[in-house]
Structures are given as structure tokens and as C-alpha cells.
Amino acid sequence: MAKDLLKLAQKYHDAINAFDFATIESMFAEDAEYHSSGIGGLYGRSAIMAAMKAYFNEFSDQVSSDDSLEDIGNNTIRSKWRLTATTKSSGRVVKRQGIETVHFTPKGLISLVEVEDVLPVKE
Questions:
Q1: 30, pLDDT greater than 70
Q2: pTM to 2 decimals?
Q3: 61 domain residue, yes or no
Q4: Which residue did the predictor score with more confidence, 11 or 37?
Q5: Domain count, the chain
Q6: CA distance 36 to 45
Q7: Does 10 reside within a domain?
């Protein structure tokens, strides 16, 4: 199962990088939660997707990558990530890095995503 979860997490990140909203949506459980230090908590697949679409509308040139992707047990994958994007509204370049923890249901759907930014951002 661990190898499958790593593949699912990679599929999720690939879909985000491709702005493939249909794939992203299909990967979340209906009652999923998404918690981020930047936006707080989102509850339910619909709320998560609405927030993602708004975010990627504002940061439509985002390029992100994983520095690591690891299985930490209990149907959970942790990644260390970094990204660069430009805000559409101001033209400001944003660089972020952090840790994302993705929890999966036994059926392989995402039940919870926890995102924590880590400062300072390494160049």
C-alpha cells in the first residue's frame, strides 16, 4: 500500500502542477478537509475545489516541486515542497516552501491535507 500511496501523492501533485482540476477533484473524499497556515480550514470537496480554483486564478504561473515525498505510516504521505508564482493582481513574485501532509482513506481518496509554510525560503 505504501508504494501505491506514494504514487497517488505524486499523481495529486502532478495534477496540481498541470492545473488539472478534474483529476484533483476526483482524488478528494466528499467530506475531505484542507488546512493551511495561509487560508485556514476548508471543509468538503466543493469548498476545497473552489479555493484551489481561486488560488490558481491568482497564481496562474505557479511552478512547484517536491524536495522529498515519504510514507510516514497510517495512510499518510509527507512532502517537503517549494514553489514560485506571480500574483496576477500585483505582479509580485512569491516564493514559498513548506511541509504538506496528505492523509488517505483506505480506498485511496484524500481525506485531509495539512500545509505548513516554512520560513525562510531557501533559494
A1: yes
A2: 0.92
A3: yes
A4: 11
A5: 1
A6: 15
A7: yes
